[in-house]
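User: Hey, my collaborator sent me this sequence without any context and asked if I could get a structure. I don't really work with proteins. Can you help?
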Amino acid sequence: MESRRRRQPALAPDERRAALIAATIPLLHEHGTEVSTRQIAHAAGVAEGTIFGVFQNKNELVVCSVVKALDPQPVLDALDAIDRSAPLRDRLREAAEIVHTRFERNAGLMHAARRLFIAGESSPEAQHQMTSTRGKLLAAVTAVLEPDTDRLRITPAEAARLLLLYCGANTFGPFGEGDAFNGAELASLLLDGILLSDSGEQATC
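Assistant: No problem. I've predicted the 3D structure and written it out in structure-token form, which is a compact way to encode the shape of the chain:
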């Protein structure tokens, strides 16, 4: 006898929404926003109609899942945990690796979020949340650089913005290749530029 797919127990609406979002996120990484409600229902172990009991439509579920998947808090926590007493180069290298890894892992979802926003398919709340994420990342990287403010020829915020631009462009810019540069190389580019010093060696901080 063919085995039947085990159904999930009844959940409160908020719990059901969270469970469906959790099931959708891996599918978005695999299939993008073209994932079907049938695939989502199968992954969540529910009937397809269950989705529409807690979400107005598939698009609402996709938007909520993209926002959840791009939640910046784990990255913000990792940046906050960087030892501020460590040398500038070490701190910046660690920050660059953290940011670059986030961008590389979520490049597809970031593209999807941009398409949803441009198409006007996301709620104002979702757009605000995504916009605020950029500000939080900028502030977190700025804080990593601030102990060495006196050694920088630009402000920590300007340097942080450049690092985010480097990491973003390397990951999903028109000339980006995710494995072309790692975080340490991007940090060195920011600190040293592309010229050798007069001695023929890279400058050190």
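In plain terms: The domain at 13-67 is CATH 1.10.10.60 (Arc Repressor Mutant, subunit A). You can pass these tokens on to your collaborator as they are.
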